Amino acid sequence: MPNSPLVDESSLVDEPLSPTIVSTELDFEGRVWDVRRDVFEYNGHELTRDYVDHPGAVAVLVLDDDGRVLLIQQYRHPIRSRDWEIPAGLLDVEHEDPLAAAKRELAEEVDLVASEWSPLVTFNSSPGGSNELIRVFLARGISATSSNYDRTEEEADIVIRWVPVDEVISGVLAGDLRNSILAIAVLAAHARG
Predict the structure, then answer these.
(1) Are residues 27 and 119 both part of a single domain?
(2) Percent of the residues in the chain that have a pLDDT greater than 90, as a whole number
(3) Is 96 a catalytic residue?
(4) Residue 9 falls within a domain, yes or no?
């Protein structure tokens, strides 16, 4: 099938594209993110799409020397659940470097700092409905912060647990742990070895 339009032998990498934006408007301005409506030209047609306009986010997969992952349990209202996840937060500080934001979130959510940091995986959370880009960092060499942060709202009753990587992977594959950031992060770390 070498002449088929469905066969592409180029590199397997997402391809950025900047179609002509005919119009854009803010349909809803929210506390954390907005809903935007764009009219754009694509393949000779004008299309209209609504999407969540998101500032982006960072997350931290913390591994200790015993092969355990740091998990937090936190209430998430849209899913009406206290799900298990990894420390994460919005890129909502203007011009903040994603690594600096990850370090800030780790300290704010679990009162920890790490001596070793590396990028783990970057992904779009829901590309059909949001422009959110999540950068996950791997952190090792953990120690306590010099002071504890005061947590409020959903963060006030965060539960912290260290769980063996294999147990987390089993929970993800069984559908018991459904947080997408956790699932992608722990599977990426496992794949990298």
Answers:
(1) no
(2) 78
(3) no
(4) no
